[in-house]
User: Which sequence fits this backbone?
């Protein structure tokens, strides 16, 4: 498997993976909106290939913390893997590659709204009880789906507040788990 940064010329492959993985166009819409959104940049968009076939995609977009702080923050999402190759470690490799790139580029915190039994294996912890609110309220029954990972030690406990996402994600319909 090869994982590399997605190129502009890869857009059809990216959207195909997103559509197949989720069975709808909501994540396709999110990807397209983020790619055109200056407030989301810098964006990390990675594509996984098996034998020249795009089989997985992950995206990280910029976020900020309110009150304003000097932190560098990203939001993971969406993460998509073609249904016929799921449970083969492709998503795991995409997450690890993305976190490594973000860490090397100086990102302090990464947030995700995702499955609370999947993301903790990569170091994500529930963010709400650590003082970090999502852009929109998440129902209490899904509170553990809002998670973070500290890429630079010393952030948790010294900062707190509300995460402000990119403009294109600033819609409550994208904040459901």
Assistant:
């Amino acid at each position: 498997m090869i994982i590399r940064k997605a190129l502009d010329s890869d857009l059809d492959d990216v959207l195909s993976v997103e559509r197949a993985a989720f069975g709808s166009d909501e994540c396709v819409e999110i990807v397209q909106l983020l790619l055109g959104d200056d407030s989301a940049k810098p964006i990390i968009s990675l594509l996984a290939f098996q034998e020249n076939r795009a089989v997985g995609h992950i995206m990280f977009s910029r976020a900020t913390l309110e009150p304003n702080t000097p932190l560098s923050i990203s939001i993971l999402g969406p993460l998509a893997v073609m249904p016929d190759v799921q449970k083969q470690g492709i998503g795991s490799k995409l997450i690890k590659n993305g976190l490594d790139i973000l860490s090397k580029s100086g990102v302090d915190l990464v947030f995700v709204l995702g499955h609370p039994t999947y993301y903790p294996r990569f170091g994500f912890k529930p963010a709400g009880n650590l003082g970090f609110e999502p852009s929109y309220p998440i129902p209490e029954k899904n509170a553990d789906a809002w998670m973070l990972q500290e890429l630079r030690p010393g952030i948790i406990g010294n900062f707190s507040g509300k995460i402000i996402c990119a403009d294109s994600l600033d819609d409550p319909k994208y904040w459901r788990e």
Helices lie at 11-22, 26-35, 90-104.
